[in-house]
Every structure is written in structure tokens, then in C-alpha cells.
């Protein structure tokens, strides 16, 4: 399965789950991202997916707020808004031309293919984070999990160096590829809001 197809299928599965979340949930609750409460995580996911979709369309990032970190967008029906954003990001990266050339990340050029993989990991891992923090479980197709494991494994060392991933979590050999990918990104696949 290509990363493009995996992102599309994964974003659809995540969006379906996110749309089941009650928008009145306590946004101060904990998340699998130890530094983020749910409000911070939702705003982060909304901002980064917007930026990553812009990059896929070869658009410049917002110079005043490139990654959308300065906006609180949790009022109202944020679960549907976030589901829409994940699907829009996947749709933007579904264009083969999105993966060509290099992209300007506000001061540094990166291969578009590297940013596309980053977008895939961002959608999948933060989608899981939000779903799990909201008490929901994701049903991710096996082929999507396998592609995510490949993408995370290739970026895990650098991701930990940059602070994007936590320390790898041990999981049994029998764990699904999706759970192994979460673990490689520093997530405990068994995390629950009460843990």
C-alpha cells in the first residue's frame, strides 16, 4: 500500500471515530502526549494539519503563525472540524504532484516526500492521541498500520532527537503493526484516560 493510499484510508477511519466524540468533553483532560492536555492537542492537530495541507498544495505557510499554534479553535463542534481537517490533509497529499520537488518550511527546504511522510505520521499518531484521550478506540486497517510502522521506523531516531517522538515503548512481538508504530513513536498503545 502506498503512503498516499494509507493516509487516505487512515484519515477516513480516524475522522469517522473523531466525529463520535462529544464536543463538550473536558478539554483539560490528559492525553497520551504528556505535555499536552486535550485542548492543546486538538489545537496542535488542527494547526499542523492545516499547514501540512498547504504545503501539499505548494502554498506558503502563514508567516504570522506557520503551524497554527497561536489559535484556539476548540469552541463549538471541534470533533467534526478536526475530522474534516484530517480528511482534507489526506486529500491534499493524495495528489501525486504534492510529493514532487522540495518545500519551504519557513527557512529551510525539505524534500516534499519527507514532508508527506511527516503528514501521514502526524495524522495517524495525533488522530490516535485525540481518539484515545476522548475514550475512543480506532479501527485501523492492517495495511495502513504496516505502512505507518514503515514510516515511523524510518524517522524514529531523528524524531526522538528532535523531541517529536518519546522514548520507544516495549510491546509484545504479537502486537499489531499499528501498535508497534505507536510504540516506536513513544506512545503506549494501552494508554487510557485513567492511566
Structure description:
This protein is mainly alpha-helical. The chain has helices at 3-18, 38-56, 78-93, 112-133, 142-161, 177-184, and strands at 102-104, 109-111. Strands 1-2 form a two-stranded antiparallel ribbon. It is globular.
Question: Can you give keywords for this protein?
Answer:
two-stranded antiparallel ribbon; 195 residues; single chain; mainly alpha; globular; 2 strands
The biggest sheet amounts to: 2 strands, antiparallel
Quaternary status of these chains?
Answer: single chain
- Tell me the total number of β-strands: 2
Q: Give the helices and strands as they follow along the chain.
A: HHHEEHHH
Helix content: 40-55%
Q: State the separation between the terminal residues, measured CA to CA.
A: 34 Å
What's the total helix number? Answer: 6
Strand fraction equals under 5%
Poorly predicted ranges: none
Radius of gyration: 16 Å
- The average pLDDT score comes to 91
Spatial order of the strands in the main sheet?
1-2
Gross morphology is: globular
Class derived from helix and strand content: mainly alpha
Amino acid at each position: 500500500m502506498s503512503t498516499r493510499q494509507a493516509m487516505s484510508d487512515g484519515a477516513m477511519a480516524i475522522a469517522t471515530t473523531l466525529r463520535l466524540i462529544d464536543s463538550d468533553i473536558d478539554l483539560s483532560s490528559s492525553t497520551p502526549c504528556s505535555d499536552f492536555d486535550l485542548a492543546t492537542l486538538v489545537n496542535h492537530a488542527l494547526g499542523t494539519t492545516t499547514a501540512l495541507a498547504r504545503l501539499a498544495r505548494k502554498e506558503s505557510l502563514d508567516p504570522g503563525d506557520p503551524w497554527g499554534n497561536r489559535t484556539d479553535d476548540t469552541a463549538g463542534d471541534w470533533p467534526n472540524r478536526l475530522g474534516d481537517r484530517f480528511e482534507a490533509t489526506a486529500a491534499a497529499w493524495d495528489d501525486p504532484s504534492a510529493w514532487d520537488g522540495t518545500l519551504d518550511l519557513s527557512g529551510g527546504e525539505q524534500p516534499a516526500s519527507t514532508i508527506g511522510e511527516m503528514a501521514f505520521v502526524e495524522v495517524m499518531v495525533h488522530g490516535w492521541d485525540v481518539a484515545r484521550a476522548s475514550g475512543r478506540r480506532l479501527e485501523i486497517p492492517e495495511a495502513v498500520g504496516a505502512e505507518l510502522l514503515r514510516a515511523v521506523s524510518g524517522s524514529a531516531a531523528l524524531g526522538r532527537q528532535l523531541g517529536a517522538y518519546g522514548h520507544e515503548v516495549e510491546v509484545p512481538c504479537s502486537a499489531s503493526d499499528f501498535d508497534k508504530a505507536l510504540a516506536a513513536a513513544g506512545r503506549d498503545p494501552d494508554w487510557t484516560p485513567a492511566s
